[in-house]
Fold:
Amino acid sequence: MPTGYTADVVDGKMTEFNDFAWRCARAFGALMHMCEEPLGAPIPDTLAVDDYYVTGLREAEAELETWDKLSAADKLTWAVASREEAIASALRYDDRNRTENERIDVMVSKVRMWSPPTPDHKALKAFMLEQLNISRHDMTYSADRIHEERAKTAAMIMQRERDNRVVRVAQRREALTKEMARVANRGAWIKSLRDSLNHA
Structure:
């Protein structure tokens, strides 16, 4: 039974080696981006870098530039608000975990008061207690998080924000560089195939 690549060969519509080679080349990395296009779509002579990478780098650079252009007073205002929100979030998290632990404690006492009707039900009681126990929140993490957020100074928060933006620029630049290398490698693969088929 013919495949999408061989159907035209089997039907006699494709007799040229070069046409068949180009059709099959779509199954390889350099032309995988064309997998959704019709098999007869022309193969490009050159490939372009995906705009996603270019746009991503521009956006990251713009975010860093915007941060660097902020006045010291605006950065301080932002950092103080950010610290307050982080502390409030940590406190909400702590409150939610305490409430959930209290609900678990209520259920634990109900399970402990329950007398299993038969010895076969003792395993069920043990299982229920185990499930409740593993569902408890470790409040150490909540307390540590609150402490950490309160310990952050505005200067630390501002530096972290700038560092994060610098890292994003570096990551996006590296991603673009890798994409450019992939495009160059794919282009070289296509050129080598084209040269080979022109001499076939």
Summary: Residues 37 and 44 are 12 Å apart (CA to CA). The first helix runs from residue 7 to 10. Residues 51-180 form one domain.
